[in-house]
Design the sequence.
């Protein structure tokens, strides 16, 4: 499994391109102008099959339409954040001095959904609290497993819960769903640096005790 991070947009949202050794891959959270992503995909000959969104806020979907044509299976988002793509009010862009809109997703996700991309298996974990449709994604390739945590979990922090649709108690409950993962499991958040489950259990002040 190969992972390439692209910090995109005004908030430096982490967009991830992940692919296997056959060049089959997917994109997570294209949050802003994404020409660097498109160029890298083309230069490496990566076959992008899907774009997944960890949630529907504008800073995670701003580059969606620019990359949409690269994904032969389209866009996937949790069903509870589906209308964020088409509603600047729901994706909060109308509160940020601009309006971000995209076409509806081709696939609506639910908790426990599984899908394959090349050799990789993706499992969807519904983790509301930052948004109603927030998700984490467990990506498995052979014996390797990683967690894409979106804005559910950051290094030493968590996503905001004071925005419309957020709820701190719900977000803390969502964190409990990550508690049984291995301590050395690598975590790739929506903003900021990579971390591990073990580091967050030790040092994150929001981790449920």
Sequence:
């Amino acid at each position: 499994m190969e992972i390439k991070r692209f910090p995109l947009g005004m908030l430096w949202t982490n967009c991830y391109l992940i692919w296997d050794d056959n060049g089959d891959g997917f994109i997570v959270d294209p949050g802003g102008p994404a020409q660097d992503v498109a160029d890298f995909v083309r230069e490496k000959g990566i076959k992008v099959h899907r774009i997944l969104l960890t949630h529907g806020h504008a800073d995670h979907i701003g580059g969606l339409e620019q990359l949409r044509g690269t994904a032969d299976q389209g866009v996937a988002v949790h069903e509870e954040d589906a209308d964020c793509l088409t509603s600047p009010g729901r994706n909060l862009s109308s509160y940020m001095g601009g309006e971000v809109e995209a076409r509806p997703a081709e696939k609506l996700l639910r908790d426990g959904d599984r899908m394959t991309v090349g050799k990789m298996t993706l499992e969807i974990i519904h983790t509301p609290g930052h948004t109603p449709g927030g998700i984490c994604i467990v990506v498995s390739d052979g014996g390797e497993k990683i967690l894409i945590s979106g804005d559910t979990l950051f290094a030493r922090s968590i996503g905001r819960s004071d925005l419309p649709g957020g709820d701190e108690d719900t977000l803390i409950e969502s964190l409990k769903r990550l508690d049984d993962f291995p301590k050395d499991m690598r975590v790739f958040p929506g903003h900021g640096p990579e971390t591990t489950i073990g580091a967050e259990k030790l040092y994150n002040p929001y981790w449920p005790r």
Remarks:
- The two ends are 32 Å apart (CA to CA).
